[in-house]
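Good day; I would like, with your permission, to put a structural problem before you. What I wish to show you is a protein chain and, alongside it, a tokenised description of its three-dimensional fold. I would ask you to consider whether the tokens describe a fold that such a sequence might reasonably adopt. You will find the record immediately after this paragraph:
***
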Amino acid sequence: MIVKALEPQTFSDSLRRAGHEAESQLAHYLKRAFEDDPYKFVFNNLRIQRRDETAQLDHLILHRCGLIVVESKSVAGEVAVNEHGEWTRWWNRQGRGMPSPVLQARRQLDLLGALMQKHETELMEKGFLGLRQRTLSGMRRDVLVAISDGGRITRKLDVPEVVKADQVPDRIRETVEQARKQGNFYFTDTELHRVRDFLLSRHVPTTAPTQSQTADAADMPLSPTTREAVGNPALGRTPDAPAAPRADATAPASESQEPPRCRHCQSTDISIEYAHSYYIKCARCGGNTPIKVSCNECDAPARLRKKGAEFRVVCAAGHERLYHTNRV
């Protein structure tokens, strides 16, 4: 099931355009493979924040046993991995070192896992007669690096995470089946839908960078000075970058958030209603969706505050953001 589609974007810079085309290509493969699968949830271009860190996940698959992050790379020439695990990109017969996209994807997954761990009691049910809290400790966490169909891969070291883009759906199926057979962890139906809704609610959209920000990111460290650095010709992809420092606790948080959706049909044509607690009422299918909110600035528990037709998320530290406005 496609939970978050890849947003169409237009880039005047050819490098960023190539990177977006690689993501679009893989999003197409994932849609064709999993659009009708009720137990594999696909998120494209999911951008999450935890405290002062940001991770932009090209593609995330939530399945019964865990998570798979897929890092999409646009490669016009060749990438090589030597026996030490060091990566080199080749373009116009010139080689240049580059950060490992496998490690990059693992850092993204680590941040996402830490965010979920923070909200473990909200996401997981209680097992054994409701007396023992289930945890995320055994959740399967995998990464894949998808090289665009036109690129070449040379390996002196076996890197099983690296595959061509058209091979990704089959590799995902193999990974999920392997996890199922191991039987170490599984989400219940309720937990699976809670995690799906939680991830969607944590998406923080970003504006497209300007032309002046298209520096070569291959040689830049992951530091606050490179938060908008742009990928190189072989990769066409921006590396992860930390978010800007948090605003003062008394200032309202950013209003730019993924809109609340119906958990049944994913429609945003909804209203906030109240019966014992606030919930989402879908105008399209009539379904009800419980509301769980937390502060995107400090991860603290939060509550909804109603003011006229507006509903705002407010935490104890004073951070505040608009959640939804009902039509009057």
